[in-house]
């Protein structure tokens, strides 16, 4: 394998990584329906689950334990801050060549939730 081929493969992996991280961040921060879960509300529910575990039958205890694990995981991820601006910049640099190489249209990006101004900055237009 030539050095040029290795460099092209590495560039493709870097572009794919930038696209994946941005899309994952968009998905994680997409507005959800219903009441927003705050760290305080999750802590209150966690305390209620702990209380209910004391008197629950085995099947209910199983479900409560799973809810407790889910709440603990959600609390840990809610503390982690994502720098969406830097991920967006990486996406903008990588999206156009990635789209061309993979045959991804403007419409596909939009349907996935990528804002049109971001696609415009990346050089991906409706006609492309």
Question: What does the model show?
Answer:
With 128 residues, this protein is mostly helical. The chain folds into two domains: 1-29 and 83-128; 35-81. 75% of the residues lie in helices and 0% in strands. The protein is built from six helices and no strands. It has helices at 3-28, 39-53, 58-79, 84-102, 106-112, 116-122. The chain is elongated. The two termini are 32 Å apart.
Kindly name the structural category. mainly alpha
Task: Assign an overall shape.
Answer: elongated
CA radius of gyration: 21 Å
Distance between the termini: 32 Å
How many separate domains make up the residues?
2
User: What percent of residues are in strands?
Assistant: under 5%
Overall pLDDT level: 88
* Number of alpha- plus pi-helical segments: 6
SSE topology string: HHHHHH
Total strand count, please?
A: 0
The profile of the biggest β sheet is: none
The helix fraction, in percent, is over 70%
Spans where pLDDT lies below 50 across 5 or more residues: none
Name the descriptors:
mainly alpha, 75% helix, 6 helices, elongated, 2 domains, 128 residues
SSE blueprint and pairings:
Layout: H1 3-28, H2 39-53, H3 58-79, H4 84-102, H5 106-112, H6 116-122
Helix pairs in contact: 1-4, 2-3, 4-6
């Amino acid at each position: 394998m030539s050095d040029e081929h290795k460099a092209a493969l590495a560039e493709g992996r870097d572009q794919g990584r930038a696209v994946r991280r941005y899309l994952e961040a968009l998905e994680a921060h997409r507005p959800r329906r219903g009441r927003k879960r705050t760290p305080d509300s999750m802590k209150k529910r966690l305390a209620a689950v702990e209380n209910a575990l004391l008197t629950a039958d085995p099947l209910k205890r199983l479900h409560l334990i799973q809810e407790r694990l889910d709440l603990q995981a959600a609390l840990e991820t809610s503390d982690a801050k994502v720098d969406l601006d830097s991920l967006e910049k990486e996406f903008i640099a990588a999206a156009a060549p990635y789209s061309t190489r993979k045959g991804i249209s403007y419409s596909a990006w939009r349907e996935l939730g990528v804002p049109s101004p971001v696609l415009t900055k990346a050089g991906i237009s409706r006609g492309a």
